[in-house]
Amino acid sequence: MRYELLVGLRYTRAKRRNHFISFISLTSMMGIALGVAALIVVLSVMNGFQKEVRARILGVVAHVQISGTGNRLDDWQAVAREAAANPQVKAAAPFVNGQGMVMLGANVRGVVVRGVVPDLEQKVAEIGLRMVAGRLDALVPGEFGIVLGAELARAIGASVDDKVTLIAPQGLVTPAGIIPRLKQFTVVGVFEVGMFEYDSTLALIHFADAQKLYSMGDAASGVRLKLNDLFQSREVTRDLMTRLRGDLYIADWTRSHANYFRAVQIEKTMMFIILLLIVAVAAFNIVSTLVMAVTDKQADIAILRTLGASPGGILKIFMVQGALIGVIGTFIGVVGGVALALNIDVVVPFLERLFSVQFLSREVYYITELPSDLQGGDVVAIGLVSLLLSLLATIYPSLRAARVNPAEALRYE
After folding, report:
1. pLDDT tens digits for 171-180?
2. What are the CA-CA distances from residue 411 to residues 73, 291, 302, 399, 406 (Å)?
3. C-alpha to C-alpha distance for 328 and 320, rounded to whole angstroms
4. How far from the centroid of its chain's Cα atoms is residue 321's Cα?
5. In CA terms, which of 163, 222, 316, 375 is 20 to 30 Å from 138?
6. Whether pLDDT at 318 is above 70
């Protein structure tokens, strides 16, 4: 073992005459550990929320959507076959998109109407798994059934088997003016995906019924695609743009919800920077520790210099001492943070029971449990940044130790 490492480790574990230096070292070590653990837990929870909300959005929104101009795609079968040729495309389903108003008694609400083929729709979205009443496959062509979002059904007071009136803006031209097209539908199901935007405005009817209601003939509004890997959506979109012919609009889920996911990414980055300041403050406490250690060990430094130690060797001794504080603090923080992030679903309910509080109230939030998604890349990045800050904090005190003049240090000894 090189003497620099040996002496540095000895200085770290030796009993000092000045116990205040030991206290500062321990404070710095625990500060680094707490900062690293907090960073890991917070980023894991943010990843968990992002993953949960993304899953809920993609339960309604397709990975890739191909639409025709003017909300009309005549040759949708050919488009679906061409799109399915891409190896990433897992399933395709046609849809008719329209707007309207749903009325039950005196209650009226504006809705987004989507015509779907239940068997195909369940392959590209998860609405069939989010039914709280009835079934999605109860939509049968010609029977004019309708599936409502939970908030929409609650707003108009509708339940399964109720008769509601759907008013389409495309009307009939008569001498008295344009008369909106009205059709009575039977509620055959209610879904709840946990996103207010969809639960309060979306209504599903059968694809064939939607074609009749909106005078689409045999056309569709477009085709929705599900991919094997949702993170390949941009590459698939670019491929389809070159593969498909015609005046089409192709959008993937990252574009249709770009503002939300961009905001989440910015928030995650800012939280990383803010919490990193905790680690930085603790790391730079190492400066105070080593400066006091250098002052306390000036006589020892002088003796080492007279025995032949070089200024570079003295510098390494104190860098080892400071780096060890950072390594131990980072290790404790990583272990504690990973353990807490993996058991957040146990720790949070325990704290809620202990203090009789509920962090995410069911009356306010759709996500009532703290989700956690621990990612190895985040843990590695946090650990490396913490070690780097700790190492940087040792440079000035170590340089100061290397410049100690042996004669000056031993003058009063």
Report:
1. 666 565 566 7
2. 93, 20, 10, 21, 9
3. 12
4. 38
5. 222
6. yes
